Amino acid sequence: MFLERNPRFVSRLTRDTLALILAGGRGGRLANLTDWRTKPAVPFGGKFRLIDFPLSNCINSGIRRVAVLTQYKAHSLIQHIQRGWGFLRGEFGEFVEIVPAQQRLDKPLWYAGTADAVYQNIDIIKAHKPSYVLILAGDHVYKMDYGALIARHVESGADVTIGCVQMPRQKASAFGVMTADSEGRVLKFTEKPKEPEPMPGHPDTALVSMGIYVFNREYLFQKLREDAEDLDSARDFGKDLIPAAIATDKVMVFPFSDPRSGKQAYWRDVGTVDAFYEANQELIGESPELNLYDEEWPIWTYQAQLPPAKFIYDNEQMRGMAVDSMVSGGDIIAGALVRHSLLFSQVVVNPQAVVEDAVILPDVVVGEGCKIRRAVIDEGCRIPPGTIIGHDREADRRRFYVSPKGVVLVTAEMLGQEVTHVR
User: Fold this and answer.
1) What is the pLDDT of residues 135-160, one digit of tens each?
2) If you average pLDDT over residues 350-376, what whole number do you get?
3) Pick from 121, 197, 214, 221: CA 20 to 30 A from residue 295's CA?
4) SS3 label, residue 161
5) What are the backbone dihedrals phi and psi of residue 17, each rounded to the nearest 5 degrees, phi first?
6) Residues whose CB falls within 8 Å of the CB of residue 289, separated by 6 or more in sequence, listed in order
7) Rounded CA gap, 95 and 84, in Å?
8) Could you tell me if 56 and 299 are in contact, meaning their C-beta atoms sit under 8 angstroms apart?
9) pTM to 2 decimals?
């Protein structure tokens, strides 16, 4: 493969690439988890946020010029990036730059779509003078070397290259679905089709876009201008710009695979409460597909200075225990049982409480004697003593959000509590 033949060239390619992370979306399918934060700022995996994954991929790939385009309720996201991603050295041409939606003299509007978000910032892209522009979604969970993707893009002579994964057809209708020939050239691209087209020879599988695109700079500018002049366009990469490019230019796929095994690598869109819950729960297993302990490809984040987790009381009436679980800094399990659950930082679980199959976000207090099962508890909640969650679906529906698969989402507002801050 090109990457194996000439890694130094790949290094030069990544240094000549500007990454744009699209982080302005609300993520409405995550229900109340995005009432006060944009989707890329949603906590994940005990100590991270969704935005940390594409940012870490950039740094680990050797891409040190990154712009994060924000819009919807971006304060917690901006705060996180400022605290955790300010270690790059501007004098060396390295940066993670926050680009909020801003009123332009010729267009006093918010971003109308993903393509419009990039179009409105052409002047910023030009100022950095990249040869290649890497467009990334800010809300997917995966570990990927973008150097191999960019190298394949250059080697193939493509105008645009799309990162893709295989997916069961019944799930593919939530994504852009592609058809490609044996050489990897895209023949068709349909955004969120009701009936996804299967891969040749695989009737139950579809080829879907990861929302990752590599463009040659001048070609990107040309297509963005054409799209902006089209009055019927939705100003979206998947709906408009990519299908238009396929009709006239060379668009290639880059199948996302594990370089060691050759099999498809881990990639999750945690765009629903069920998907968010399941992806967090997967991490608890003995050998999860997403390895957060990988020293060769670390996931970077901002981490507050917190004391270690502790477990207190050890008698027949009260025993602080966490079994088959992940806990974080500042957690206190005080005479309570936590089983098969993931606890973010500064979670307190009080005596006689039982927490099972749960995902509990930062700064939550679980009251004495509570019974919580198969739930996501949002940041800052104070669960009153004796509260029962996840044991009676009809009672849960009256107070909380219950997902199609029966996961209960609890927020401070649902408990009648004031939202004082969202990190």
Assistant:
1) 999 999 999 999 999 999 999 999 99
2) 98
3) 214
4) strand
5) -115, 140
6) 266, 282
7) 12
8) yes
9) 0.92
Environment class of residue 297 by beta-carbon count within 10 Å: exposed (0-12), middle (13-18) or buried (19+)? middle
Tokens encoding 338? 């936590």
Q: Side chain identity at 413, as an amino acid letter?
A: E
Structure-token pair, residue 173? 């209708």
How much is the pLDDT for 422? Answer: 63
Instruction: Give 52's contacts (C-beta < 8 A, 6+ positions apart).
Output: 44, 84, 299, 300, 301
Tokens 């068709």 belong to 188
Query: Could you count the other beta carbons within 10 Å of the beta carbon of residue 257?
Result: 15
Q: How far is residue 271's CA from residue 252's CA, in Å, rounded to a whole number? A: 26
Distance CA 308, CA 346 (A): 10
* 333 phi/psi in degrees, rounded to 5: -105, 100
What is the Cα–Cα distance from 366 to 359, expressed in whole angstroms?
12
Contacts of residue 87, defined as CB under 8 A and 6 or more positions apart, other chains included, come to none
Q: To which residue do tokens 């989707």 refer?
A: 39
Q: Could you give all domains of the chain from N- to C-terminal order, each with its CATH number?
A: 2-282 (3.90.550.10), 310-415 (2.160.10.10)
Are the C-beta atoms of residues 380 and 412 closer than 8 Å to each other? yes
Three-state DSSP state, 34:
helix
